[in-house]
Amino acid sequence: MNYDNIDLSTIWKQQKGCPPDIEELLSKIKQYKKSSLRKLIITNILLAATLGFIVYIWHKYQYQFISTKIGICLIIIAIVMFILASKKLIPIFNNIDNTKSNVDYVKSLSLIKVKQKILQNKVSRLYFILLFSGVCLYMYEFSLKMTIGWAIFSYLITFIWIGFNWFYVRPKTIKKEQASLEELIRIYRSINHQLTEKE
Questions:
Q1: Burial class for 75, CB neighbours closer than 10 Å (0-12, 13-18, 19+)
Q2: Fewer CB in 10 Å around end: N or C, the chain?
Q3: Model confidence, pTM
Q4: SS3 breakdown of the chain: % helix, strand, coil, rounded to 5?
Q5: CA angle, corner 67, sides to 169 and 131, nearest 5?
Q6: What is the pLDDT along the chain (199 residues), one digit of tens a residue?
């Protein structure tokens, strides 16, 4: 028997005894999809707003140093790159629905896992490198107008903030997202395996 196109709702209705709650399982998928899409959309809106603000500031103020302009360009590139990369996940999330087979669910979730890994590692790494470099270059022109103490303090605060996001916030967020996705994939693979064993 081919288990690739089994409709989970039908299987649950046919089972005897105390099968797991299919509505709860499908609700987890819906909740994961909704939560992930909401985070993606909010992140992209915030990044787009930040991008607009940066472009406005650049247009309004005349910077003297080329380093400041290069810094702004690097920040803009970082933001645009992240938005474009994360937008690729939206159609994949939208393709998840409650009428697909268990194997289709696993394929969709596995594809999301691969895309998220690229976003969380390669894209995120490049984003932080560009952002860090851009901010440092941008701050240089202003730091020359400060006392040495204030300049060092400003750079130190910037390094701490970026370091906090890179070493604490980012890993924690990645771990949480991966755990949710792994749990869903595990459940659907387990169901497929149980069905195969029964046959």
A1: buried
A2: C
A3: 0.76
A4: 85, 0, 15
A5: 15
A6: 444 444 444 544 454 444 455 666 777 778 888 888 898 899 999 999 999 999 998 888 888 899 999 999 999 999 999 999 988 888 888 777 655 666 677 777 888 888 888 888 889 999 999 999 999 999 999 898 889 999 999 999 999 998 998 899 888 888 888 888 788 777 777 766 665 555 5
